What does this fold into?
Amino acid sequence: MKKTEIQKFRIDVISDRTSVLSMLVCRDGTLGRQGSGKLSADGVSVLGASDGSVFNSLIGLLDERIFPHAEVYDHPDKTGVPVVYSVVFLGRDQETAVFEFRFGSETRDVGELLPFFDGFIAQAVALSDNWYAEGKAGVPANV
It folds into this structure.
């Protein structure tokens, strides 16, 4: 998959069997988000339009060398709170690249991909924080 082919992506974070973040980010500017990525879970969902800057910024962070490594990584040591990261990229012709990481909050030796996606998810939250806060408050939000 090439970055130019990505039309949208979805990010889901589950912590202690609770959805703490669900995001949909689309090339056309559609943006959806529920949660902050942290416990305690925020159940408010916001869906709307943006100027596409969140999508473009996040796509800019990607290194295409990650895509051949798309798969489920189920770490055998899930020390601490159980955590699942799921990031799914959808291309033009229904092509998908799925990255799923199952680990514990205290798990060590997680390789190189998990820290990359941890930063990617943190950036997605940061880039959409104002939009999400305004949407939860009922203010027309622009990103």
